[in-house]
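Changelog-adjacent note: as of this version, every example in the card shows the full chain rather than a window. The one below runs 460 residues end to end.
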Amino acid sequence: MNQRHIERAGTRHGRSRWPARLVAGALFALGAFVQVPEVAARRCSYEQQLDPCLGQNPVCPAVTTRTGPSNSEWPVFQHDQQHTGRTRWLGPSCAKELWTRKLRGPMFAAPTIGPPMPGGTDGVVYVATAKYPVCALDPANGMVRWCDTTDIGKLPDHSAPAIGNGKRLYVGTRDNDLWAIDADPLQGVASVPWRQKVCTDGDVSTPPNIADDGTVYAGSDSLSAGTILAMCPGDSGQIRWCINPVGGGIKTVSPALSPDQSVVYYTLNGIELRAFDAAVGTPLWSIRVETTRNGARLWNFTPVVNPLTGRVYLGFDAGVWAVDPPTAPGRNPTARLLFGTRGGSGEVMASPPAIDVENDRIYLGASNRNRGTFYAIDLSGRLLWSTPVGLANMRNTPPVVDGDGNVYLAAGRQLISWTKDGRERWRKEDPAGYTSSPVIGRNRLYVGNRQGRVVAIGGC
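Full-length structure tokens:
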């Protein structure tokens, strides 16, 4: 029995009519006489456990349709393949609540926005939550279009869904899987064409990224040794390339692509940036910019790439680093601390910055145990303005920027918007606390909180 058939044996919507409790009791009783293999053994062969990259092949099966990122309002983590956090759409000019929808389980990953439903204009909102592991919400009123999938898994944790063309969605979960889900909002129950298991007990808590050719990039903790992988476009579920071990766990970090998509970037341990050939996975170069490792699960050290120059920005403990890739073969990358946040306050970054190239802005939040500060700097690192945001750790809640240069930040219990020059536009409080970064649609904003509540703001 191959891996995909083994996975199907555990689907939620199987043909058995036995009540779940009777099945569980029978299995428990049977376990007294028969040794039941571990879950990893049922879904991973011995060879796969020794080599989670088994079966990789850089020659992908042909696909008949374009399978790159969706041409929607917010298809991947931090909007685009470079994770700039900036969109051409305008966000809301006030804090008016359009609707709110309570889902099962807390939200630790940002929503994403896919194509609209037939006849609609606003994109469907996809939220990673509970064991579904994704729900599709109607943007008009927050109605749940579907949550159930033909498989059942574990929590998606910090993996924001990535939306491709052809109504395909990708998300990682804490059962060590990267999922492909057919994200048709009209289907009622979403089908799962494939799940790629990382057979080294490594949560896939990375938000996946999608290249224009449909290749899907993700990563896994893999017992703090790290696995990175690229999956072929389409329905094959074939690994295009894979590296294990990388040399450090990949937690929460989303891979970023260079402007020409020839290079994919990952960070390790909150201290190092590594570059790989996006087509075949060959390591190209690496640079270590800090000395103290940070392996915190909640912190997000996703690299951010300037879409015009290719410079890579890293939000690490010390502040924002600027890394310039090598300019010719045989040369080394260079790095400098563009803006330090520690100073006398001891503030550190726990989320990536957002960059607004058109307005010469980089936005970042930093905090310590007692205070948080939001900063705006220019692309050279010069401080433009800053403002305190109170007690807010800003872990995995990067800022986002709209088409007019207005910036939005989820900071603890506060959701705040400023103009590009630092004038506060509006503020909204949530006693439960915001646990995801916001995303921007057409004149509206979506954000999630610790109680699993999705809020839509707009209609101003």
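Structural remarks: The longest helix spans residues 20-31.
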